[in-house]
C-alpha cells in the first residue's frame, strides 16, 4: 500500500511539471513552436489523447487580443459547431423524435410553418430532407452568385459587397435572423437538385439548428447544453459572446472586386466573429470551446471508448458515406458533421473564414500493429490562418507527443490548486459559474473525483461555487455516485429528495444560498449519494427555520442523540433563516458538538480557537451576506479531533501558498468557502486537518 501511494505522488508531480510549464520542455512543444513560427501563426493550443486518455494539453504564443494562450484558452471553434449540431440531430433520430428522411419545408415538413417571403419558385425546395442538410447535399452552392453564402449576408453587406441585402429585399428590420434567411432562401431557386451534389453549406446547418428547436421544443443552445455538454463534462463550451454593433463600423476598408465575396473575405484579417452575432449562426458556426472540451467531446462520442452520446448504430450513421452525392475522393467524404475516411477517422477543419483548427479522431485502430505509438485523437486551435499547413503537418507534429506520459492533465483543467501529499490528490477550484456547474460536476466524475466541499458565493452578480474534490476513497464495491442539484426552491428540493431516495440516494449535503442565476432567489443546493446511509443511520432535516425554534428543535434532537451535519444560514427578507441536516447513528456514542450562526470574521476566528482548545474540530462552515458583511455559520464536533489549521480573509494566492506549505506536513484541506468581505473583495476561508493516515 505504502509503495503504491508513493508512486501516485510521483506521477502527479510529473503531471504538474508537464501541464504547468508554458512552452517547450517537451519534444512536441519544441516542434510545435517551430511550426507556429514558420507559418506565421501567433499562437495556439493543442491537446492529444490515446485510448480515451488525455496525454497532452498545452498552449503557446498569444491570442487575437495579445493574451498568452494556455491549454484552457477559449477559441471560436467554427465548424465544430456543425459536429455538435449533427450529433444532436442523430440523438433525436435515435430517440425516434425525427427521421433523417423527413422533409423540411412545405406541407408535412418539419418546418412547415416557415413561409416563403414570396412564392416558392423551385418545387425542389420541398424535396430537401434532414439527411441532405447533414451531408451538405441540399442544393445550395455558396460559390454561386448572386447570394453566395446566405449566412454571411450581413457580413458582405457591411463590407460593401454587391449581393442582395436580404433584410432590405424583404423590407424587414435588423438583425437578420435565421428565420428571415430561411424565408428568403426558400423563395429562391436552388443551385442543384437535392441529393445530387455535395457543396459545403453553413445555411444547411443553420436550418438543422431550427429543426432541433422545433422538435425538442427548447432553444438550440439549451438542447446542446443538456444533451451533449453536461453529459460529456464540457464545462467551458458555449455560444460565443455577443459583440456590440460599434465593432462592425470599425472594420477595415471594404473590397469590391471581381472575385466574389468569399475569396476576398478570406484575405481579410478581420474575424468573422467581429461581425456576426454568434447566436445568429449558432448551429453552423457559433460555438466557443477549448482543447480540453474538444477532447471530452470525441471521447464521449466514440462508442468504441464507451461513448454515451449515441448508441453504436447511430454513431456509425454519423460516419456513413452519402449515397447520392458523386464521389470526389474515393476514400474521404462528408459524413454528418464530420469528414470521414475509409480508415475510420473523423475530423473537422476550420471554415474558410475563420482561424485554423483541426479536430481529429481515429475511431478504431485499423493498423496491424498491436500497440500503436501515436495518439488517436488530437485538436489544434490556432490563432491565424494557413489551413493547408495545419492539415498537412498536424499528423507529423503529434507523432512527437509522448503517449506514455503518465499524468492527469484533466486535473489542471478542473483545479486552481492541485497537489499531492504523497498519497492523495486534492484539488481546489475557486469560481465555477452556476451556469457551468452541472457540466463541471460531470467532468469531475469522469476523472473519478468526489466533491468533498462546495459553497456558493456571489461574485460580481454571478453565483459561483468554490469546490474541494478528491479521488473516491471508497472500495470499489460501493457505488461511487453522487448527484449535485442546485437552484432548487423548497418544493423542488423536497420533490428531488423523494424521487432520489426511491432510487437509493441519500441527501448528504444541503446549502441555502442567493442565486443570481435564479433571479436572486434563495435557492438550495443539495448533494445526494447512493447508499450513503445504512440502516443504523437516521437523518432529520429542515428548511428555513427561524433561529429560536431551530435552537429548541436542536435541543430536542440532541436529547435523542442527533448531531448537526449541516447548518446553513441565510438572511432572507430581513429575517434569519436556518436549514439543517441532523444525523444519528445507533450503537455509537453521542457526538459532542457546538453550533454558531451569524458570526463576524473576528468572532469566527476566536470561536475556532476556543473550540480547538476543547478538542472540537470544525465540521461545517457556511457564509451569508448580511447587509454587505459576511456572517458565518459553524458547527464543531469532537469526532476524531486531531491537528488542524484554520485561516480566513485570504486572497487566492495566499490560500494557495498556505495549502502548498501545509501539505508538506500532511495537512489536507477539508472545508473551503469563498465569500465577499465588507469591502467587496473576494476572500476565502479554509480549514485543513492533519491526516491520520500519515
Ligand atoms: C437512505 O436511502 C435509502 C434508500 O432510499 C432509504 O431507504 C433510507 O431511509 C435513507 N436513509 C436515511 C437516513 O434517510
Ligand atoms: C507539491 O507538494 C510537494 C510536497 O508534497 C512540493 O514539494 C511541491 O513543490 C508541490 N508542487 C507544487 C507545484 O507546488
Automatic annotation (TrEMBL):
Question: What residues does the Beta-lactamase-related domain cover?
Answer: 31-343
Q: Which residues form a coiled coil?
A: none
The keyword Signal appears for this protein: yes
Which Gene3D superfamilies does the UniProt entry name for this protein? DD-peptidase/beta-lactamase superfamily
Q: Determine if Signal is one of this entry's keywords.
A: yes
Could you list this entry's UniProt keywords, alphabetically sorted: Signal
| One Pfam family cited in the UniProt record for this chain | Beta-lactamase
According to the UniProt entry, where is the signal peptide?
Answer: 1-23
User: Which named protein is this?
Assistant: Beta-lactamase-related domain-containing protein
The record lists the organism as: Patella caerulea
Amino acid at each position: 500500500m505504502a509503495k503504491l501511494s508513493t508512486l501516485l505522488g510521483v506521477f502527479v508531480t510529473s503531471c504538474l511539471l508537464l501541464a504547468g510549464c508554458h512552452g517547450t520542455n517537451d519534444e512536441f512543444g519544441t516542434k510545435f513552436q517551430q511550426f507556429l513560427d514558420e507559418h506565421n501563426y501567433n499562437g495556439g493550443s493543442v491537446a492529444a489523447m490515446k485510448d480515451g486518455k488525455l496525454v497532452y494539453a498545452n498552449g503557446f504564443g498569444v491570442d487575437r487580443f495579445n493574451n498568452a494562450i494556455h491549454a484552457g484558452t477559449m477559441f471560436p471553434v467554427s465548424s465544430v459547431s456543425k459536429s455538435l449540431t449533427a450529433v444532436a440531430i442523430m440523438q433525436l433520430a435515435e430517440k425516434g423524435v425525427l427521421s433523417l428522411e423527413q422533409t423540411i419545408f412545405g406541407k408535412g415538413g418539419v418546418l412547415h410553418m416557415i413561409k416563403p417571403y414570396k412564392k416558392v419558385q423551385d418545387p425542389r425546395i420541398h424535396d430537401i430532407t434532414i439527411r441532405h442538410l447533414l451531408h451538405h447535399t441540399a442544393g445550395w452552392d455558396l460559390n454561386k452568385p448572386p447570394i453566395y453564402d446566405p449566412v454571411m449576408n450581413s457580413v458582405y453587406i457591411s463590407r460593401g459587397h454587391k449581393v442582395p441585402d436580404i433584410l432590405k429585399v424583404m423590407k424587414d428590420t435588423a438583425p437578420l435572423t435565421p428565420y428571415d434567411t430561411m424565408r428568403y432562401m426558400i423563395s429562391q431557386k436552388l443551385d442543384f437538385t437535392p441529393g445530387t451534389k455535395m457543396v459545403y453549406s453553413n445555411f444547411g446547418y443553420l436550418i438543422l439548428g431550427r429543426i432541433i428547436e422545433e422538435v425538442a421544443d427548447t432553444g438550440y443552445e439549451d438542447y446542446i447544453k443538456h444533451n451533449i455538454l453536461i453529459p460529456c463534462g464540457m464545462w467551458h463550451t458555449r455560444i460565443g459572446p455577443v459583440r456590440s454593433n460599434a465593432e462592425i463600423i470599425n472594420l477595415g476598408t471594404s473590397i469590391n472586386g471581381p472575385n466574389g465575396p468569399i475569396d476576398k473575405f478570406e484575405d481579410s484579417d478581420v474575424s468573422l466573429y467581429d461581425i456576426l452575432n454568434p447566436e445568429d449562426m449558432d448551429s453552423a458556426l457559433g460555438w466557443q470551446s477549448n482543447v480540453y472540451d474538444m477532447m471530452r467531446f470525441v471521447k464521449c462520442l466514440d462508442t468504441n471508448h464507451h461513448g454515451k452520446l449515441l448508441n453504436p448504430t447511430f454513431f456509425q450513421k454519423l460516419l456513413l458515406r452519402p449515397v447520392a452525392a458523386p464521389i470526389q475522393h474515393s476514400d474521404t467524404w462528408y459524413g454528418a458533421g464530420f469528414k470521414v475516411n475509409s480508415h475510420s477517422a473523423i475530423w473537422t477543419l476550420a471554415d474558410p473564414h475563420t482561424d485554423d483548427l483541426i479536430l481529429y479522431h481515429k475511431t478504431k485502430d485499423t493498423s496491424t500493429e498491436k500497440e500503436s505509438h501515436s495518439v488517436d485523437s488530437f485538436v489544434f486551435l490556432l490563432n491565424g490562418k494557413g489551413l493547408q499547413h495545419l492539415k498537412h503537418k498536424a499528423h507529423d507534429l503529434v507523432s512527437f507527443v509522448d503517449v506514455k506520459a503518465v499524468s492527469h492533465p484533466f486535473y489542471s483543467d478542473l483545479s486552481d490548486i492541485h497537489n499531492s501529499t504523497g498519497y492523495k490528490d486534492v484539488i481546489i477550484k475557486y469560481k465555477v459559474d452556476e451556469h457551468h456547474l452541472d457540466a463541471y460536476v460531470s467532468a469531475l466524475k469522469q476523472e473519478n473525483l468526489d466533491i468533498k466541499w462546495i459553497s456558493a458565493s456571489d461574485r460580481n452578480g454571478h453565483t459561483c461555487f468554490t469546490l474541494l474534490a478528491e479521488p473516491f476513497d471508497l472500495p470499489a464495491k460501493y457505488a461511487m455516485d453522487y448527484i449535485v442539484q442546485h437552484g432548487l426552491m423548497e418544493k423542488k428540493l423536497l420533490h428531488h429528495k423523494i424521487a432520489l431516495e426511491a432510487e437509493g440516494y441519500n441527501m448528504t449535503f444541503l446549502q441555502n444560498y442567493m442565486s443570481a442565476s435564479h433571479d436572486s432567489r434563495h435557492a438550495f443546493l443539495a448533494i445526494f449519494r447512493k447508499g450513503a446511509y445504512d440502516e443504523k443511520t437516521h437523518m432529520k432535516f429542515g428548511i428555513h427555520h427561524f433561529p429560536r425554534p431551530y435552537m429548541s428543535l436542536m435541543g430536542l434532537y440532541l436529547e435523542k442523540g442527533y448531531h448537526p451535519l449541516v447548518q446553513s444560514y441565510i438572511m432572507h427578507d430581513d429575517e434569519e433563516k436556518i436549514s439543517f441536516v441532523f444525523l444519528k447513528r445507533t450503537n455509537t456514542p453521542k457526538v459532542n458538538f457546538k453550533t454558531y450562526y451569524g458570526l463576524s470574521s473576528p468572532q469566527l476566528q476566536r470561536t475556532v480557537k476556543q473550540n480547538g482548545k476543547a478538542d472540537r474540530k470544525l465540521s461545517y462552515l457556511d457564509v451569508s451576506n448580511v447587509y454587505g458583511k459576511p456572517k458565518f455559520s459553524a458547527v464543531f464536533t469532537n469526532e476524531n479531533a486531531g491537528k488542524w489549521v484554520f485561516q480566513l480573509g485570504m486572497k487566492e494566492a495566499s490560500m494557495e501558498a498556505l495549502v502548498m506549505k501545509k501539505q508538506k506536513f500532511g495537512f489536507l484541506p477539508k472545508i473551503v468557502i469563498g465569500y465577499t468581505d465588507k469591502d467587496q473583495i473576494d476572500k476565502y476561508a479554509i480549514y485543513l486537518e492533519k491526516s491520520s493516515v500519515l
